[in-house]
Amino acid sequence: MLYWTMGARHTAARTTGGTPPVANVVVVGGGFAGIAVGRGLANSEVRVTIVDQHNFHTFLPLLYQVATAGLDPADVAYPIRTIFGGAPNIGFRHGRVREVNHAANTVVLDDATELNYDHLVIATGATAAFFGIPGASLYAMPLYSLADARRLRNKLLLALEDADARAEQESVALTFVVVGGGPTGVETAGALAELISIALRRDGLRLDRRRVRVVLVDLADRLLTAFPPSASGYAARELRARGVEVQLARSVVEVEERAIRFADGERLETAAVIWAAGVTASGTLAQGLSVAAGPSGRARVGLQLRCEGRDNVWAVGDAAAIPSNSSAFCPQLAPVAIQSGRHCAEQILHAVRGEPLTPFSYHNKGIMATIGRRAAVAKLPQGGVIRGTLGWLAWLGLHLFYLVGFRNRLRVLINWTWRYFDWPSGPRLIVADAETAD
Amino acid sequence: MLYWTMGARHTAARTTGGTPPVANVVVVGGGFAGIAVGRGLANSEVRVTIVDQHNFHTFLPLLYQVATAGLDPADVAYPIRTIFGGAPNIGFRHGRVREVNHAANTVVLDDATELNYDHLVIATGATAAFFGIPGASLYAMPLYSLADARRLRNKLLLALEDADARAEQESVALTFVVVGGGPTGVETAGALAELISIALRRDGLRLDRRRVRVVLVDLADRLLTAFPPSASGYAARELRARGVEVQLARSVVEVEERAIRFADGERLETAAVIWAAGVTASGTLAQGLSVAAGPSGRARVGLQLRCEGRDNVWAVGDAAAIPSNSSAFCPQLAPVAIQSGRHCAEQILHAVRGEPLTPFSYHNKGIMATIGRRAAVAKLPQGGVIRGTLGWLAWLGLHLFYLVGFRNRLRVLINWTWRYFDWPSGPRLIVADAETAD
Fold first, then answer.
1. What does B147-176 look like in DSSP terms, one character per residue?
2. d(Cα A6, Cα A229) in Å, to the nearest integer?
3. Positions of chain A with pLDDT under 70
4. Nearest 5°: phi and psi at B50?
5. Which of B45, B170, B187, B238 is the catalytic position?
């Protein structure tokens, strides 16, 4: 069964007058966690409004492929209204939350309208953490929204075009730096190396492949620290075989517009710095939403996922610091977001129905990272590692499975098939450029 | 045979030293005309550089479907480098032309680099003509680039979201006005009416369909004046059946930010004014390129497609005022662009080889416009008209046939199939919004 698709279409009319008052649930954020809350409450007795600044849900795990021109933006996005088209009790509101008035139980949007809630769910996700490194927030490019991915794609493709134009006169060197050796950094570096190979081979750019560098740096002495060391070694070897320079135990001290500085004094000129170094909870969560903040600005919740000191305010996914029995808090991963969202929906129904709440417990399903064609690693819940072609096929299958909408799955499959067989084209379009000044 | 795809891949090395000097051809513009020139010169003895401000070719006839969320931007765009990936003598240069130095035979790009040419081809296309109507260039939205289409799509979808949000409190009316009853206006109005129906039915917007108006206005007393009157009547009936208000013999005197004014004094409040009223040659053609300008700013050319008074400067497609035997000048249509581009390539080879030039003559293949599902009209070269399902199927087939790249054809087919059967989703994404300020 596919997780995100809705069940049979319900055409029941909206609940109106004559019936007991309906509880209003406002969910802020339409990512994995927010959608899971909506899914859990679909066709129930509560009325749900999902608020998001975008009218679509973004499949973040494949964003790096949009950035490296392997997928189109529309392949990884799905309109939120359409996800819940079959559920008459789920509404969508396009907008940003300006503040929460806990005393009045209202959310104020940026167009000054107010939404009343009986239960509020904070599912605002995470954004890049820059750890106060000078210049990082200004010049490094994170990958946490479709707009980020489009911007990065344009920057990468424009850098290649610009280098090609300069190659008319001179020998050109071009360096891209990826900061962060976790799954996002490893995946982005691998895909970027692949994009460069394709662009040079198929598009006839006048660049010397050996002078176009992709450098992956991390503070730790191995990649993928959440995986066993054997997986780290495998990932480093596979990346190097694809032309990525892996530099470990290197500390970034400053990012400039066209360069990056390391603690050992080296200054490397770069065409782009891609930031995959870590996440923090989105925006000014603690201030704007007036809930207690924990590590990385995440909302502190109890085991029932309620924010500390609040009866009817819940937090889920990356935005929440969820207690865990194996470590201090649950990791900021898609499975945690989906599971906590689903659990939160159940708790809200318990609360509305006057039933006792139950504690959340994260069911670890393992983690994965892909390096490139036929190369991926997966860490199983029992600790075992799958790698190589088998890991890659598992990675492909799972990502297709979790993508929202059959149409998106079909299109992603087509794009992947194209890239795998190295057929011409693929979405190497510089769409936002001087023309629109975006 | 598919027109745009290249033949077998040639892997011959670039022509360098030792051989007689190679003629340089610079083609400004990668639209239908520019690509046809490149295609005609591929694998010949000249060296070609296509210059475009975008790294992709845009299939303009389907732009209105991107604007009305029927297709994705990437469906109608194809990287120019990839089109010519198999031809070693065709290069691409990403940039804009700042000026032409005819005395030195150089083109100056906006990054100040100069390209030498032996032959220069102006294939800069057309943009919207606003006829000096106050406010039109400021507030009306044309449809001549992928960026235009994305902007319009965002505006349309945001207007629907905004109306839905206001519908919480009040009864909301929403009007969209399409100016121009030619093929672009008819197609856009029909597709917009379809988008609204789908959005209301599938996305559960709280709007009254009868209060969401699509108004198509034209100065003439019938639609599609290039077609016989029977086609005009058919188009008007089909549009009205789809909920479009067709208002003829109406003259627009001003466009405001949220309204449009007519000569009869009426002022209509609008969420968007879509401008499909006509075209003029792109940019400051006559000034920047220093060639004689004819009607609508088009470059005046002789029957050999050479610019007046120039031996080695040619103009093709929408940017050229090409003499015609049936009327004063050839119409600004895709087939004229393709045929004139192909002819120009032949003439350049004649000139390089010292052979006599031959005059261009436009081979009329008819014109088409689609109104919606199973409703289109085609005017055959002999003057006959095909309409209804047959016309629609012909329209679908031809557009798929002329789209560049098999991958794009496959994706467009998927998107069309989705929309035809009214399956959920489709690319109704508001991608560029407040987040990127674009």
1. HHHHHHHHHHHHHHHHHHHHTTTS---EEE
2. 40
3. 1-20, 282-288, 422-438
4. -95, 125
5. B187
Residue A268 and residue A174 in contact, taking contact as beta carbons nearer than 8 Å: no
Q: Is the pLDDT of residue B434 over 80?
A: no
Alpha-carbon distance of A98 to A102, in angstroms, equals 13
Task: Please give the full DSSP string across A283-308, using - where no structure is assigned.
Answer: TTHHHHHT--B-GGGPEEB-TT-BBT
Q: Which residues contact A373 (CB under 8 A, 6 or more apart)?
A: A194, A392, A420
The DSSP call for residue A141 is B
CA distance A76 to A10: 26
Question: Hey, are the CB atoms on B55 and A204 less than 8 Å from each other?
Answer: no
Amino acid at A171: S
- Residue A283, chain B, CB below 8 Å: the answer is no
Tokens of B411: 């994706």
Question: Where do the H-state alpha helices sit in A18-119?
Answer: 32-41, 63-67, 80-83
Nearest 10 degrees: CA dihedral of B15, B17, B19, B23?
60
The tokens describing A79, both together, are 């309109």
Sign of CA dihedral A295, A298, A299, A302: negative
Chain B residues in contact with A428 (beta carbon < 8 A): 55, 79, 82
State the count of interchain CB pairs (< 8 A) between A and B. 171
B312 in Cβ contact with B297 (< 8 Å): no
Taking the C-alpha atoms of residue B247 and residue B221, their distance in angstroms, rounded to an integer, is 9
Distance from CA of A436 to the nearest CA of B (A): 7
CATH architecture, domain defined by B136-277? 3-Layer(bba) Sandwich (3.50)
How far does A378 lie from chain B, in Å, by closest CA? 31
The 10s digit of each residue's pLDDT in B122-181 is 999 988 899 999 999 999 999 999 999 999 999 999 999 999 888 877 888 999 999 999
What class has domain B24-128+280-353? alpha beta
Between strands A320-321 and B259-262, the pairing is: unpaired
Domains B24-128+280-353 and B136-277 alike in fold = yes
- CA of residue B230 relative to chain centroid, distance: 26
CA dihedral over B84, B89, B94, B99, signed as positive or negative = negative
Reported as type and span, the H/E element at residue A159 is helix A146-166
Reported as a single tens digit per residue, the pLDDT across B172-229 is 899 999 999 999 999 999 999 999 988 888 787 888 888 999 999 999 999 999 999 9
Residue B73 touches partner A, C-beta closer than 8 Å:
yes
Task: Sketch the domain layout of chain A as residue ranges.
Answer: 24-128+280-353, 136-277
ipTM of the prediction greater than 0.85, yes or no: no
Q: Using CA atoms, how far apart are residues A188 and A184, in angstroms rounded to an integer?
A: 6
Question: Residue B353 belongs to what H/E stretch?
Answer: helix B334-353
pLDDT the model gives residue A437: 28
Give A146's contacts in chain B (Cβ within 8 Å): 431
